[in-house]
Amino acid sequence: MKADTENLHDHCGMGSYRKEKGFYRQISIICPRDGSSIVTARFYWPGRDGASNCYACVWIWGGVSHGHGGGKAGGYGYHKESAAIESALHNAGVYLSENIGGRGDSAIRDALTAVARAVTGRRRFFTIEAHG
């Protein structure tokens, strides 16, 4: 998977996607050289049930390139986390070579790693996942 970060920017109104009381989990892509976080994605499920919306926020720091975005996904019958992070990445100005919406956790990790590669030019990273 490849990520185009040429139009990376800060998404206005991102605060409406942060639902701290519904924090669910976080995935961070870390630089092995200095331990800095290059991409951080946070997921929120305020209702903690399958019927509620899933919200996602992403922060990207790649030296001179930086941006952030938020997104959400609702409905039934698919992997909402991957759809929400796809929306958040799009709102931050990131365009992926593959659609990840509804494709699961491995698609999320692949997309976040592709973004880290695009903004740093590096190939190897650590992935850290934390649950709330």
Biggest sheet strand order reads 5-4-3-2-7
**Number of helix segments?**
2
SSE order, one letter for each helix or strand = EEEEEHEHE
Percent in helix: 10-25%
Query: How many structural domains can be distinguished in the coordinates?
Result: 1
Structural class: alpha+beta
Instruction: Please report the distance between the alpha carbons of the first and last residues.
Output: 28 Å
How large a portion of the residues is in β-strands, by DSSP E?
25-35%
Rg from Cα: 14 Å
Q: Largest beta sheet, briefly?
A: 5 strands, antiparallel
Name some characteristics of this structure.
two-stranded antiparallel ribbon, alpha+beta, 7 strands
Describe the structure in your own words.
The chain is of the alpha+beta class and 132 residues long. It contains 2 helices and 7 strands. A hairpin with a 6-residue loop joins β2 and β3. The termini are far apart.
What's this model, at a glance?
This protein has 132 residues and is an alpha+beta fold.
Question: How does the SSE layout of this entry go?
Answer:
Elements: E1 3-4, E2 23-30, E3 37-44, E4 54-62, E5 65-73, H1 80-91, E6 95-96, H2 105-120, E7 126-131
Antiparallel strand pairs: 1-6, 2-3, 2-7, 3-4, 4-5
